């Protein structure tokens, strides 16, 4: 569930009444930014706009959500060319300037617009308007569950098939060995054992890559840690190619990568730092003293021991990050890098 008091929210107003409502929101959530039409000549705005469409275009992706206190039609016309993807677009809320209704318009689930509409309605003593099918039918919202638990949605088109089945009260096969999703789905909607067929939808929650029918929704837990050792000056492209090759060869999803770990002697390695940035994962560096605490690794290296005083970088770092028993892929070497993969425990 999204705590919108901690998120970046922009509130847009073109009339005095709308500006008054906007100020009430800011009184409740001081971190909100108020955008007022320059024609209003009213104090309190964090920014003023002369061109609504141009200013919104510049601010669109800078906020987690936008609350427009104006006619829905105006908003629809302006945001039409800004929307990209339901998993990336900010939450969009519309409301009348009398403060009667707060309407969840875009990104109701993953973007949190439904929850934002409810919270704004509570602040303004208004009626939230939620139109997403799973909500009005009191069915589980699989995309919300995935988002709330940090699961990567690998095939977004399958969401509608799962949602429709749940709306109809139909049980679906579910592979979820770590019980990340099952506790949030009514038992009568889970079919076990999980036997997937080409004609039915289902839910697959795992870091392992399998050949699944297209209707099956694939959710990837962020639980894999890549320990990496590399030569000085190795390029980001070489590192990424090797990492992806290892993941593919081992039947692991790169979308489950949660962290990269290495030795602190590589803390200034441009290729390694760029790799973490491009893969959008944090990177952590262990000191040689910390790595030396891991006394047993599958593939100790006398050469590494000679140069930096420890028997392993990639395996030792992966083990340090996850625990000794969680190494699932021992050292895989290329000409310029080594990679080991471990899984973080779920308990």
Distinctive features:
347 residues, alpha/beta, Rossmann fold, Udp-n-acetylmuramoylalanyl-d-glutamate--2,6- Diaminopimelate Ligase, Chain: A, domain 1, Nucleotidyltransferase, domain 5, 3 domains, 17 strands
Distance between the termini: 21 Å
Q: What shape does the CA trace take?
A: globular
> How many distinct beta strands?
17
Could you say how many structural domains there are in total?
3
Strand-pairing-aware structural class: alpha/beta
- Which CATH class of the largest domain? Alpha Beta
- Helix content estimate: 25-40%
Textual characterization of the structure:
It holds the Pfam family CbiG_N. This is Cobalamin (Vitamin B12) biosynthesis CbiG protein. The chain has 347 residues and is an alpha/beta fold. It folds into three domains: 128 residues, Rossmann fold (3-Layer(aba) Sandwich), CATH 3.40.50.11220; 80 residues, Udp-n-acetylmuramoylalanyl-d-glutamate--2,6- Diaminopimelate Ligase, Chain: A, domain 1; 120 residues, CobE/GbiG C-terminal domain (Nucleotidyltransferase, domain 5). It contains twelve helices and 17 strands. Strands 3-2-1-4-5-6-7 form a seven-stranded mixed sheet. A five-stranded mixed sheet has the order 8-12-11-9-10, covered by helices on one side. 40% of the residues are buried.
Ordered list of secondary-structure elements with their pairings:
Blueprint: E1 9-13, H1 16-28, E2 33-37, E3 47-49, H2 52-59, E4 65-69, H3 72-79, E5 91-95, E6 101-106, H4 113-124, E7 127-129, H5 133-136, H6 142-148, E8 151-153, H7 159-167, E9 172-175, E10 190-191, E11 202-205, E12 216-221, E13 224-230, H8 236-249, E14 257-263, H9 270-279, E15 283-286, H10 288-291, H11 302-308, H12 314-322, E16 327-333, E17 337-343
Helix pairs in contact: 8-9
